[in-house]
Structure formats: structure tokens, C-alpha cells
Amino acid sequence: MAPIRHAFSRVMRSLVMKFTLLCGIILIAATAVLMGIEFQLKRTYNTETGLRHAELITELFASNSAPYFRRDDAAGLVGRLNDFGAREDISSVYAADINRRVIAVSGQTGYVVGQRAADHLIQSAIGAVDTRVETIGDTIRIAEPAFDGGRLVGAVVTTVPISAVAEPAGRILTRQILIAFAALVVFLPLAAFIITRALAPVRELTEAARLASSRKLDMRIDVQTGDELEVLANAFNRMFARLDASVKRVHRLAYVDMITELPNRERFRKELEQVAREAAENDTEGAILFLDLDRFKRVNDSLGIGEGDRLLEAVGRRLREATRAWDLANGDLGAGPSMVARLGGDEFTVLMPRLRDSSDAARLARRVIDAVRRPFEISGHQVFLGLSAGAAVFPRDGADPETLLRHADLAMASAKRAGGNACEFFESSMNQSAFERLVLENELREAVREDQLVVYYQPKVGMTDGALAGAEALVRWQHPTAGLLSPGAFIQAAEECGLIGEIGDWVLRRACKEAAGLMMKGHCVPVAVNVSAMQFESEHFAETVLEALQESGLPPEMLELELTESTAMRDPERVIKQIEPLRDMGVTFAIDDFGTGHSSLSYLTRMPFDVFKIDQTFVRDMSNDDHARVVVETILALAKSLKLKTVAEGVETADQYAALRGLGATLAQGYLFGRPMPLDELERFAEPESGHAAG
Ligand code: C2E
Ligand code: MG
Ligand code: MG
User: Fold this and answer.
1) On the chain, which terminus has fewer CB atoms closer than 10 Å, C or N?
2) Which CATH class is domain 265-426?
């Protein structure tokens, strides 16, 4: 039973089958009703025909046999009756006189001659002197009075089978069934065919809906039936088009970076996951490049957001072009093209699905770096950027996107620390140094919170009189376990984790406060404070300086701010804007480590600086290196013509001191006069009896 039910329910899943079955049922039902009506009509007609026929022949026989009744000619009557009874359409007949005594019999009547007929039919016919009819099943019985000259002489009773005069009902039924069956055989397949054709659009709609549910939405249903199905199909088409557009939009929002139109982080992650898995399965190698723009933040700040976006877009375009060109020339296109993505901010990535060897990654990195180094044209300005790249090779450096990205990022950070515009490959030692850096950063945050930083001061002395002319504030970290740390051990980490701003501000306030304290004690020691690029580029730099001065009460002319040459020359217009208001108040500005950068002389002469600090490397080498000596001489000559003061850094020997004095330097700073020292030592240094009268 179950298999039948199963098969039935499967068949019933098709609309064509359902409709065909319905048609079949309607056809059968209609045929059955028609057959019933036809059968009934035929039966009535048969009965009526039979009756008429039976009445006719019985009446005829009764009138023919009347003379025999009259003559009491039983023999003659029997002869006539036998002839009559022999007819095919008569099954039995008997004649009786008016006393219902049977005179002659033919066929099975149940009477014998001489017996009195007792059936009600003859009784009624003789009693009423009229014809009496009775139908029993397929037979008709008729009792017909016989008259002779208007006088009743007897009666004849015949039994007539209807079948003898009309077609039997059973045969009609058989024929009808045969016809109905033939109709079913012919019409059912025809109905199935028509239904199949009529439902074709429904099938198409169903198939379309099925495809749509499996996310294939870029299709059109072509139904031209001119009826509701066409309306439905058109509605489907419109719905699919809208859905398709929405899905594409959602996909774009989820996987495309809106600024550069490049794949975004999520898309990159998915692609990398798949490519890395395939590489592991097929025993091949691929690589990712983690790219970070150098100097983007500063350029972005000076350009404004809209222009910054355009710059990123242009960078994205160059990266894509460079990668595509590389793919065409060298790539293994069988493994698919390389993919450029933007992770966010100024970070980009390139996925190389297949490497012939790892130098491929280095070569592509070189190409993209060179592509980004070419100047960009943004709103009529030339913008110069750099690019640091880190490469991680899979499966060697990691099998999953997170690990690979982290490793490539570490390699990139290392390339950036080394000066940028280069690519480094990930090495496992980077994990260790990254960990150490993380520890350092955490400790540094704690140092700022826990007040572990101190300021040391290194004296600056006059070239001619050797008198104390100022001091440079230099930060130190009183580390709880490692002891006193120099800035070299932590300044770079502080810059990278963004703490330098906080540290720098703290040093500035502390130095101003301590210098003001010294003044109160009668020691007038101008203080010089180092300013990092990040600190200087902050919008609130000038405010911070003003606050430090106001809080401490230090006169502005007692404060000098040291900017490195690279900070000062990065964006000269901006630098001028930043320092001019402070300078107007009396704060002086020095260029630190002068000579080590690549300053443009034309800009330099226009910059509002007061002091050049000659880098200690030149001072150290000037006695045995002519080149160093020429540099020192040139800086001093330049400073003289620009009417600037000079400080020679790192003076360690009396010879250096003498030589610099000979060349006309203004001040000297170095171990020869004093190492960086705590405040109380500086105070003693400033005492007149120490031999260094405060200027
Ligand atoms: P800088 O501003 O050029 O400071 C001078 C550096 O030269 C100091 O090193 C000082 O100790 C060292 N020096 C002075 N005289 C001599 C000498 O005769 N011989 C030798 N060999 N070295 C001498 P320090 O204190 O280690 O500072 C290193 C750098 O750290 C500084 O260079 C400065 O760029 C940075 N720095 C120090 N304190 C701060 C700060 O508070 N903020 C910022 N942003 N940077 C700071
Ligand atoms: Mg300095
Ligand atoms: Mg210096």
C-alpha cells in the first residue's frame, strides 16, 4: 500500500497530472450522467414501444379470434392461438371465455385448458370490459377483451418480452461503456497534451522561482500568453530585476571599498582563505603583500578629506595597473590574476595566487612601490607618497588569512621602520620583536601614567666665554627594573604607538616649570625642548605651548623649541603657519641635527628659524674628515649670512671646541661641558662658583 501511496503522491506533485486526472474524473462523471440519462430514456422508449406493439398485436389477435369465441370453435381458436403464440414477439398467450375458463394456451402461462384463470389482469379486463396492461421487468402482460358484434365473448392474455421489440437495456449499457472508454482513451491524452501546453508558462515561472531562490537573478521569463500568466511573468521579471539590483548593491556594500572600488578587507579575506587552501592542497606557493602608504596621514590632513579620498583612489588605480601589468608579463594566469584590495585607511594588500619562486613577490612589490613613488596630481598640486611593503608567503608563513595578514603586516612595519619605500619578507623573529614592542608599548603607557619619566638637562655654553647659555631638556625613563633608559630605547616606540604626543607635552610642561623654578632661584637658564613631528603636526600644538608657558610663568623668550630638519622641511608653508604666532611672542625655534636631512636651501632661507644645531656627527668627524669640516663651515657661513645663531652638538674635546670657536659657532653642547643631568645638578652647574655663570 505504501509504495502505491508514495507513487501517487509523487504523481500528484505535478500540476499536469493533477489537471489531467481532474479532466479524467470530469469526463467519466459526465459520461456516467449522460449514460444514465440515455439509459433511462432508452428504457422508457423501449417500454413504450413494447407496450404499443404488444397492445397492437394483442388487440389484433383478440379481434381476429372473436368469431371463434362466438362459434365456440375451440379447435379453431387453438389453431389460431398456436399460430399467434409461435410469433417471436410473443412468449406466451392464452384465451379464456367470459367465465375466465381457459380455452387455448400457448407457451408458459401456468394454466391448462379448462382451468379457470385466476390472475388479476384477466379478472380486471373482463370485469371492466377494457384492456389491462402490466409490466413486470422486461416483459409486458396484456389482457384484451374480445368482442363479437359489440358483445363481450372472452379475453386474450399475452405476455410480450420487450426485448423482442426493442434493444435490451443491458446491451445499450455495454455499448455506452465502450463508447465512454473510447472517449477516455482519445480525450485523456488530448487533455493531457492541452494542459501541458497551457501550463508551460507556469512551469517556466516555477523554474524561474526555483533559480531565483538559488540566487540566480539575472534572468527574464518569456511568457506571451496574453492572460494572467503573462501579467504574472512580467511581475516576476520586475521583481527579479529589483531583487538583482538590491542583491548587487548589498554585495557591493559588503565586499567593495567605496572609495577605490577595490575589493575590501572581507572580500580579500575570503579570497585569500580559498586560494591559501588550494595552494596547500596542490602543493603550490602564493604570497600576499601588505602595503602601507608612507606620509599619507600628513598629506591627507593638509589636503582635506575629499582630496584625500581622491588620492587613495588614484593610489588604488596605480596599484591595480601595476599588478595587472605584472600579471600579463610574469604571472601564472592559470591560477587566476593577482588581486588588489584596500583594507582601510592607507593600507592595501595584493594577493598573488601562485608564485614561481618567492622573488616574484619581491619583484611585484618593487613595481607597486615604484608606481606609488611617482608624484600624484591632486587639485593642481604634486603630491609625493611612499610605500612600505611586507610579504608573507603561503603556506610557509601561515595557512589562514588572519595569520598571513598579521605576518605580512609585521614585515611591512619592519620595512617602514627601516625607512620605507621597500619590501621585507616575514621572518619568524618578527613575531618575537613585535611581542617585545608590545610589551614595551604597554610599559611605556604605564610609565606615563605612573610618572616614571624624568627630564634631564644638558648645558649649552657660550663659545667665547664658556658661560652657561641654556640647557636642552632630554627625557629619561626611570624604568622600575631596567634602570634609567635613554630616549633611543623608547622614543621610536612612543612615536609608533602614538604616545609621543603625550610624552612630548609632559616634557614641555615639566621643562617650562623647572626652568621657571630656576629663574625664581636667580638662575636664568633658557630651556630647549625637542618637539617630535607628530607633536608638532597636531592642531593644538601652539595652544599646548602657550598653556605650558602660562602655567609655569616662564617668559616665552626663555623657551626654545627644537624641530628636526625633516619635520621642519616636510611642509614648509604649514610649519611657518604653526611657528609664526609663537615666534611673535618671543619663543625661539631651532633646527635640530642640521645637515643630516635634505633641506631645500631656497626654503631654508625663507624659514623663520633662529638657531641651527649642527649635528654631532659632523662635529665628531671634522678633525679627521675634510668633508665633515666643509659641511660645518658651510652651515656656519649660511647661518651667519641669515643672521642665525648656531649650536654645535656633541663637543667632546677641547680641540673641537677651539676649532668651532675659530669658525664662529655661537654655542656648544657636549660631554666636554656636561652630560645630560638631573635638575639639581643643573642648578649646581648654574651656580656662579661652578665656573659657569648663568647668561
Ligand atoms: P638630540 O636632540 O640631538 O639630543 C642630543 C643627543 O646627543 C642627546 O642624546 C645627548 O645626550 C647626546 N649628546 C650630547 N652631547 C653629546 C656628546 O658630547 N657626545 C655624544 N656622543 N652624545 C652627546 P639623548 O639624550 O639620548 O637623546 C637622543 C635624542 O632623543 C635627542 O637627540 C632627541 O632627538 C630625542 N629626544 C630626547 N628627549 C626628547 C623629548 O623630550 N622629546 C622628543 N621628541 N625627542 C627627544
Ligand atoms: Mg635636540
Ligand atoms: Mg641633535
Assistant:
1) N
2) alpha beta
